[in-house]
Amino acid sequence: MARLVIHNEKITDRDAFIKICPFNALEIKNGAVEVNGSCKMCKLCVRKGPEGAAEIVEDQPVKSIDKSAWKGIAVYVDHEDGIVHPVTLELIGKARELANKINHPVYCIFIGAGIVDKAEELLHYGVDNVYVYDHEAFKHFRIDTYTSAFEDFVKNIMPTAILVGATNVGRQLAPRVAARFRTGLTADCTVLDIKENTDLVQIRPAFGGNIMAEIHTPNARPQLATVRYKVMNAPERNAEAKGKVTVCDLSNVVLNSDIEVIDVVPKAKEKFIENADVLVVAGRGVKTQEDLNMIHELADLLGGDVACTRPLIELGWFEAKKQIGLSGRTVRPKLIITCGVSGSVQFAAGMNNSEMIVAINKDEKAPIFKIAHYGIVGDLYEILPRLIAKIKAEKGA
Amino acid sequence: MSMNIIVCIKQVPGSNKVEVDPVTGVLKRDGVESKMNPYDLYALETALKLKETYGGTIKVISMGPPQAMQIIREAYAMGADEGILLSDRKFAGADVLATSYTLSQGVREAGEFDLILCGKQTTDGDTAQVGPEMAEYLKIPSVSNVKRIVSVEDGAITVEMDMANTIEIARVKFPCLLSVEKDIFMPRLPSYVKMRATKDREIKVIGFSNLKDQDEKKYGLNGSPTQVQRIFPPESNIKRELWNDSAEELADKLFNKIKESKFI
């Protein structure tokens, strides 16, 4: 249990000291520097301030939990009506990699109705045990019944870490489970690793800015993390199935719900930017809405789709589902061509795993060039028409 | 029927231009201005629309430093009736769990409610987790990704939840918590007249000592199971080429590269 204490007598330059804090959490009150509620405990003042000026004080020794009681890396099987979301396989691949490092098993938790045969299929991807909660009550996703089944799983199996896809279901289910066990949950991890003591090393973009944060859950179990689709690599399917499927007893699971599903209607089939092999992305460098025509034309010629950055959503030029980035979609196409995109970290987080990144931007210093494989310093208005003409000529030939 | 609605709002940095100086490791933040989390505007607008149809009261609740009163004033100017700010040094350094717990304790001080509305996520944390965790602490049902309110009946609300491939239409019993999607309703602008009329309206400030649960270990840094070990600037890609040439040359090179990689 730690808190921050400021030793004013050790501060040489008060103004310089309070400026160290990027969150304006240090302020001068009654002639002394104090910490206010904006503090994020980033400890920069401890590290960057004069020696001893800011100090982390441990109030009382922390009662440590027994980490050895928690074993296994679990993956939540994300599905809609039994159709497993591919993020699940990606997470199984990651879970296997982590589990091998600490010699733990890999588990899946699968909650649904009539799903046992679908659970068998997961055994081809390197899972030791798939725990199945199979009941008509789980036919449709309802937060209360699903959380109850999840709770039962955690209590009985006690996995040290649980990976959940950051889908519309995962992003509401994981927090409910985390709060039920009063444990840590880290959203949208882009890198996952594990330490020998089973602490999960979770890396994600943080503080809404150009910063990555490494986050640990050092004294709570299970450790929950969500990961977006197309961030990790899915393993190859093995011809042979290994491991087993365990159908779980439901006597301790609450099947009654405060939520009644009246209907489930399919959404109109639409093109998702997540599924495109080629994406052409419009950024703020595109000056008018009419100019989007050439972006669309290039995408069509390459058999791809068009996506955009956040400012263009705010302009109303695109629907929200076309947005790439932390507040939009994560994509991993084979080829992505960004046009007039500066490349904020939020944007990059949504596309930097793309196989081939081509960036066109006038500004040589644009951050997009730090992640582009091929950075083209030039005016998209001069380059795109020429490129389009060349592709047309080639196709006509 | 009239509804008592609580809307959760958060003050976020006005700009996302935060960088780490790669040499000193110090965070640099351009511009200190802050604003209401844009996604919260949709939650507030949803509340205002429900109130217009069914009557009732709207309370906004926020956790943050005293400066966050500014966004409560903004909510008043949009039509909120009451505002609560949870502010205390003991709340500092809170992660998702501690934040959700503190808010759930604050909600208990706000009195009876039928519905809690949250935005989809914040623009600074981007986690979308605080809503469901709060609901868990309050032991009420929750639905995220709500894209449409279908109807309000006695004791329940029917909503459309956006799933990956389907829309789930669900009737949820009150009290409950909904996280609404962007674009559920177009948020109104704050009204100058309302701003003037509410400029002296009270904002209830609640500190640690006002909360029912007096266990300090559940708040702020102490109540946060996750810990930031380090922060660092994002890595750049390993292999990269920067082409600086005439437009003709660049178009040629790009065409050849795309062709060579078999995209044409």
UniProtKB/TrEMBL annotation, chain A:
SMART domains (alphabetical): ETF
GO molecular function: electron transfer activity; flavin adenine dinucleotide binding
Stretches assigned to the 4Fe-4S ferredoxin-type domain: 31-59
Binding site for FAD: R284, T309, R310, Q323, I324, G325, L326, S327, N361
GO biological process, one term: fatty acid beta-oxidation using acyl-CoA dehydrogenase
Highest taxon of source: Bacteria
Family in the record: Belongs to the ETF alpha-subunit/FixB family.
Protein name, as recorded: Electron transfer flavoprotein subunit alpha
Organism classification: Bacteria, Bacillati, Bacillota, Clostridia, Eubacteriales
